Amino acid sequence: MEGISSVLGDARNAGVLRKFSLFSVLMIVLPISVFFGAKHLAVQRQISLGFLGIDNANAGTVLAALIAVGVTNVLMIAFVFSALAEDAASQAETTSRAPAATVAPSRSVPAPGPASVPGVPKSAKDE
């Protein structure tokens, strides 16, 4: 247990755990709540999905399931983007703390082009 305590003692790791815990709770609570709320509204408003070949008895359940799946996908995408943003911020912080490397200025050497190749005219009008 000493290893877990030392990992969680770091402020960056504690933030990661907090974010992971928040998204885990949201992944459990939000889709289930949205499913039952959407099903209740669909039954209450008598929404029909007959154009999809779904009878009215199951229309509320199908619609609620589709909405719950959409909410789940939005949560997963939000978690991935927040993790990527956190990683980018962490990398930027790491590079800003690193001492700047001293680089000697290099002498610019022109790349060989058609003008420096013997026997090749500089342009078409030089021919």
Automatic annotation (TrEMBL):
Low complexity bias spans: 103-121
Source superkingdom:
Eukaryota
Keyword Transmembrane helix belongs to the record: yes
Where are the coiled-coil regions?
none
Pfam families attached to this UniProt entry:
VMA21
Q: Which residue ranges does UniProt annotate as crossing the membrane?
A: 20-38, 59-84
Q: Which GO terms describe its cellular component?
A: cytoplasmic vesicle; endoplasmic reticulum membrane
BP GO terms, sorted: vacuolar proton-transporting V-type ATPase complex assembly
Q: Which InterPro entries match?
A: Vma21
Q: Where is this region: Disordered?
A: 95-127
Q: Which UniProt keywords apply?
A: Cytoplasmic vesicle, Endoplasmic reticulum, Membrane, Transmembrane, Transmembrane helix
Q: Does the keyword RNA-binding apply?
A: no
> Could you identify this protein by its name?
Vacuolar ATPase assembly integral membrane protein VMA21
The species this protein belongs to is Porphyridium purpureum
